[in-house]
Amino acid sequence: LQVAESGGGLVQPGGSLRLSCAAAEFNLDYYSIGWFRQAPGKEREGVACLSNSGSTNYADSVKGRFTISKNNAENTWYLQMNSLKPDDAALYYCAVQYNLRCEELPVIAARGQGTQVTVSA
User: Does pLDDT of 1 surpass 80?
Assistant: First the structure.
């Protein structure tokens, strides 16, 4: 069972990036999915979650700027990141989660290796 991210890179403050995550062999109807990030010297932070029923949760720091979505037919989900700030720079990774609801603590079934996002002028 594999999960793999793509789409990271260098972007200027105020710019946008879209991260993608592909999960071979998972039926996303039976899992929630999430995006996490970790910057050097900081704790891992849950950024966004999409439940199997379609509800979403976002960290306060990204509300209104980031959007999580998925394409069930392609077993792929996305994180659209707009109005990026230097504080958004981190290693972002996606996860398939056993918990169906995003209000529950994330229990990770599988996660990717991460994709680096750098926000700098």
Answer: no
